[in-house]
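Suppose you are handed a protein chain with no further information: no name, no annotation, nothing but its sequence. What can you learn? This example shows the usual starting point.
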Amino acid sequence: MKRHSSVVLLSGTIFILGIPSALSFGEFASFKIFGLNWFDMMDYLSANILLPLGGLFVAIFVGWYISKQEIMGELFHGVRDTRFNKGTSKVWYFLVRFVAPILILLVFLSAIGVL
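A reasonable first move is to predict its three-dimensional structure. Written in structure tokens, the prediction is:
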């Protein structure tokens, strides 16, 4: 798809989805989905589902699919003290690979009411 077409399509979709959000405190205040008006539903969806899932996918991608050398090159670009690089890189890499996905998953499960 060409860039212009995709921009027009996505802009139109966002505009159309934004109309009920703008009107959810006035004309569409009585329209409820799962007991929430459109604005509150979009807020819940973005804050409690999409943001944690996005963070989880980024942590998995960075920790498991990008090479360690690439990550460390970007993380410590411009840092001169190599002693700092070695110790910090091991801790950071461990946290991104193992701790962050588990904690983000716990936040996600808590946000959707499972925990």
